[in-house]
Amino acid sequence: MSTFTIDTATSRATPTPVPGKRMTVPSLRGRKKGGRTDQPIVMLTAYTMRMAQLLDPHCEMLLVGDSLGQVIYGLPSTIPVTMEMMCAHGAAVVRGSWHALVAVDMPFGSYEGSVEQAFASASRIMKETGCAAVKLEGGEAMAPTIQYLTHRGIPVIGHVGLTPQAVNILGGYGARGKSEAEAKKIVGDAKAVADAGAFCIVVEGVMEAIATDVTKAVAVPIIGIGASAECDGQVLVTEDMLGLFERTPRFVKRYADLASEIGEAAAKYADEVRARSFPTDEQTYRPKV
Ligand code: KIV
């Protein structure tokens, strides 16, 4: 099903032909049958319509992550991210995709207060964006919230291990699970989140052995980020893997070097404008003779 409704001579949001059916929660959940998924699940973040269009054919899931706080808005962490930001970017990504399941992060402060607050926020995100699922951070403590939402028609993706919204408690973004007690807690968190009804779980920034244990212990797909190849799928922040930032975490592989390409293009444009060699006749409107 295409989500595009804009088709004017001036819009860049050109509709794409309907290529087929969108991924669903049961189809993704069903990818894990007993052991680890046969085919790993591919997930990337997207915050804009155009990026969604480009990534959609290659992914089973697109995540409108609250990492947009840092990546798009230049905020110091995900903590200041608002519902308005998540809804606006979530709707853009749904409009730019037709195949991948779109999940939207619940921002910090929008769900921790009570199950009723979580339902109000999650239902608003789903109504305003058209996404199929929400993601929220936290383990055992969030299990009652996940159960409340899933029992009321809201598919939830869990997020355990390194949970960036808790940066002030954790004291930084380092890998988690270095002590035995912490490793045990992360596995327990993943089990609690799965038992509460999450249809898949992001496990971020953990030692490989924990990823192995969680993937074995939990019946729903485990999507890793900085969590080794042992998981049922992988997610990365797209701008990191495209090389848009000088500094990327150790677990990121750069598949492109867009920062250099953009810098070179901008420098060339600036040179040509200053030399009056852009625009040329080709880019200039004149009456037809
Ligand atoms: O906010 C985000 O982009 C995320 C991913 C890194 C998993 O939560």
Describe this structure in words.
The protein has 289 residues and is an alpha/beta fold. It has helices at residues 25-29, 49-55, 68-71, 83-95, 115-129, 143-150, 167-170, 180-195, 208-217, 238-241, 258-274, and strands at residues 41-45, 61-64, 101-105, 133-135, 156-161, 200-204, 222-225, 233-236. It has eleven helices and eight strands. Helix 5 (115-129) packs across helix 6 (143-150). The chain is globular, with a radius of gyration of 21 Å. The N and C termini lie far apart (46 Å). The model has no long low-confidence stretch (mean pLDDT 94). The structure holds 3-methyl-2-oxobutanoic acid. 3-methyl-2-oxobutanoic acid binds next to strand 6.
What are the SSEs and their pairings?
Layout: H1 25-29, E1 41-45, H2 49-55, E2 61-64, H3 68-71, H4 83-95, E3 101-105, H5 115-129, E4 133-135, H6 143-150, E5 156-161, H7 167-170, H8 180-195, E6 200-204, H9 208-217, E7 222-225, E8 233-236, H10 238-241, H11 258-274
This protein binds 3-methyl-2-oxobutanoic acid.
Percent of residues in β-strands: 5-15%
Which residue ranges are poorly predicted, with pLDDT under 50 across at least 5 consecutive positions? none
With strands numbered from the N-terminus, the spatial order across the biggest sheet is 1-2-3-4-5-6-7-8
SSE topology string: HEHEHHEHEHEHHEHEEHH
Structural Rg? 21 Å
Q: Please give the count of helices.
A: 11
Query: Assembly state here?
Result: single chain
Bound molecules: 3-methyl-2-oxobutanoic acid
> Major beta sheet, specifics?
8 strands, parallel, barrel
* Helix percentage range: 25-40%
- Distance between the amino and carboxyl termini: 46 Å
Task: Please provide the count of β strands.
Answer: 8
Inertia-based shape: globular
Structural class, from secondary structure content? Answer: alpha/beta
Mean pLDDT: 94
